[in-house]
Prior knowledge:
By secondary structure, this protein is an alpha/beta fold. It folds into 3 domains: 16-181, Sandwich (Jelly Rolls), CATH 2.60.120.260; 186-272, Immunoglobulin-like (Sandwich), CATH 2.60.40; 277-594, Glycosidases (TIM Barrel). It contains 9 helices and 30 strands. The protein has helices at 62-65, 311-323, 338-347, 366-369, 384-402, 422-438, 483-499, 529-543, 585-595, and strands spanning 16-19, 22-29, 47-51, 70-78, 85-90, 96-101, 104-110, 116-119, 129-137, 148-152, 158-162, 176-181, 186-196, 199-208, 213-219, 225-230, 233-238, 252-260, 263-272, 277-280, 283-286, 289-290, 293-297, 328-330, 350-354, 408-415, 445-449, 467-470, 506-510, 549-555. Strands 23-24-25-26-27-28-29-30 form an 8-stranded parallel beta barrel. Strands 3-2-4-9-6-7 form a 6-stranded antiparallel beta sheet, with no helix packed on it. It is globular, with a radius of gyration of 24 Å. Ligand EVA binds next to loops.
Amino acid sequence: MYDQLSLYPETNQKRITLSLDGMWGFRFDPDSVGEKENWMSGLRSSVSLPVPASFQDLFTDQYSKNYCGDFWYEKEFTVPDIPGRIFLRFGSITHRGTVYVNGKEVTSHEGGFLPVICDVTDFVRKGEENHLAVKANNELNESTLPCGAVKTLMNGTRIAAPYFDFFNYAGIQRSVWLLILPEEHIKDYSTDISLNGEDACVAYEVKTGGEHEVFVSLFDKEGNKVAEASGKKGTLKVEKANLWKVRNAYLYKIRIQIKDGDSLIDEYNDRIGIRTVAIKGHEILINGEPVYLKGYGKHEDFDIIGRGLNYPLIKRDFECMKWTNANCFRTSHYPYAEEWYRFADEEGFLIIDEVPAVGMMRSTHNFAVAGMGQYTYFFETPTVPELLKNHLAQVEEMIERDKNHPSVFSFSLFNEPETTSTYSHDYFSKVFARARELDPQHRPMTGAFEKNSAPEKCQCYMLCDFMCLNRYYGWYISGGPDIDDAILKFHDEMRRWKEKGLDVPFVFTEFGTDTLSTEHKLPSVMWAQEYQCEYMERNFEVFDTYDFIQGELVWNFADFQTTEGIFRVNGNKKGVFTRERQPKDAAFILKKRWENK
Ligand code: EVA
């Protein structure tokens, strides 16, 4: 866990944020000789590569695309000669990285989807050029998140073998910043919100590196101060609060200051929304009002940039989602770049924020194996203590990073693990307990279950505040001409869940069909656009039968890249939009249904 410094970078009268995005030096290190040869002081022969971006699709050769092992980035940067502490902040380094400044190791971080932050004050020379190197690595094993393996070809080449259905993109995929902060600075803040009639209470807690007094104020959209308080802990009372509503967001500006008498030591500004989240019976309540979730499971994925941060793509995705009248998405299967959440805050989208706990099942095709009833053991192996350590660390970092976003209404702590053994129950009990301890807003916790997690066998559903099911009746189960059977089987499963009398909301976090945007056929066939439309309509029949079903997130928003194989046609084609973000026919069906839902 970091030293509470996950605040999104801001430049203001006391803080300077310098972007280090751009072209960096890059070099593969297949024999892991970099450290021995002192690459941390200079890569010598390197190619230029853009940051942020995944490296895989930038080259034209197989070796680079499928490279698995160590790889290095480097960049020269100049630190202004002004007072303050100097930090480096990487939005992420995938899947792990060690950071060196002027040849010296500064920090190491495991996990590829959360920030890497380090204080480099004692490593840099102010007013001069400095050398930054990052040794990264994209190997997977059964104690990493996500889980997978490395396979070695007969010629010795090593290749990633993910236990999950998305391409193992890696690199420095998010923005990198140099931060100059006052010696005594604001490290973190958290909020917890309650409503009292028309008024709201924002209870806050601020962490700073000193003992000077903290002041917190809240401003409305017009810039009027509507509440203030002092102290590291306190309450902002907002009369006649403007609520952050689903698809109708209202954001306040929160200003945190450290002062010494009249003189300002540090300041941090952020935008927060006033809203509450609760689960009551089978309803999801935002500000006490029930909401039906409509939207998608997504990926950070696009041509050429891979999983690299791209503002135009974020904008286009939100426009497409809004066009279909969606109100929610799940950050399947890992926490996304922070820019996604900031946009969702503005647009009033709800987010199920997912930790990269995917592939926790002994199978490389869990999308196909799921539902065959076969036992896919995982949580009784010797790798589990290390896996749990990583899982807990990433839950902590995710909640620490995302805790103040009004858009985040729930955390998902897994996607489709093995959940039928007592081992899985013990494992996930620990993960859920820790997550509940950490979230200052006490959001509902959940996880996405595949079909083997059947009502009679699943040992983990009771850990969740609401149920998320990934179901493919009519695709992996009884597809095409068998779809009538699929629907009967689907009803049968839902009846069995109903009989358990859980009285919690159920949300479908995945359902969908692979669909080629080029294929049309009447009567429909699997893979044609007509079939995707029919499948949706038939699934909706089931959803609309049960009042405890409170949401539908289609798999997937857009086509995306996966590992190659006979199940995938240049990637997963379950998108409602193509990879270029143009609608398939099913998009029009969703748009119509969600207009009135
Ligand atoms: C699929 N099914 O088969 C999807 C996967 C996804 O891409 C799943 O959660 O069950 C997985 O990652 O298309």
